[in-house]
Write a structure and sequence with these properties.
This protein is an alpha/beta fold and 176 residues long. The chain is 47% helix and 19% strand. The protein is built from eight helices and six strands; from the N terminus they run E-H-H-E-E-E-H-E-H-H-E-H-H-H. Strands 1-4-3-2-5-6 form a six-stranded mixed β-sheet. It is globular and about 45 Å long.
């Protein structure tokens, strides 16, 4: 279970960026997102998590040790029970050509965990979408996170999960 939960609160710059990207007025976006419960994960041996908490208007960031797939499934299932999300966004995993040799004979932990996450979402009947890391990191880079009051030092994996959450909020229809 997580030991540390950081909280970041989106400022006016966040709402302006969201409004520009989605071509909707800020008040309309606040109203639309006021009923959302979104959970985002950056899966790996340490899984980062970001929870969209509205109407409190903040994002909770935490990291969960997920080295054992069975225990990870149970821990992530507990996180789903806490949040009861209406959507899960997770980082997609791909083996690129230049990585193929290094993956030879590897157990590929992260794809196994992503499979467990897909099963968890299916069992709970929660819509799930995936996005590659580079898209979320390119748009929601450290500078943009800082400008929007959403940068939290430490907990690198939780910060990456936050990028996925924010990318989903910014571009909800884009997935891999």
């Amino acid at each position: 279970m997580p030991e540390r939960i950081d909280v970041v609160k989106p400022n006016d710059n966040f709402w302006k960026i969201l409004s520009a990207a989605r071509k909707q007025p800020i008040d309309q976006l606040r109203e639309e997102l006021s009923n959302r419960r979104i959970l985002a994960w950056d899966p790996g041996e340490t899984t980062g998590q970001a929870r969209w908490k509205f109407p409190e208007t903040h994002i909770e960031l935490l990291q969960i040790e997920t080295k054992d797939i069975g225990q990870a499934f149970q821990d992530l299932e507990r996180q789903v029970a806490i949040q009861v999300p209406d959507h899960i966004r997770a980082e997609e995993y791909r083996v690129y050509n230049w990585m193929a040799d290094s993956h030879s004979w590897s157990l590929l932990h992260t794809p196994q965990l992503i499979g467990a996450i897909k099963v968890l979402a299916a069992l709970q009947d929660i819509p799930i979408s995936f996005k590659l890391a580079q898209q979320a990191k390119a748009f929601w880079n450290d500078e943009n996170l800082k400008v929007c009051g959403l940068y939290s030092p430490g907990q690198k994996h939780a910060r990456d999960a936050c990028r996925h959450l924010l990318y989903y909020l910014t571009f909800p229809d884009q997935q891999d």
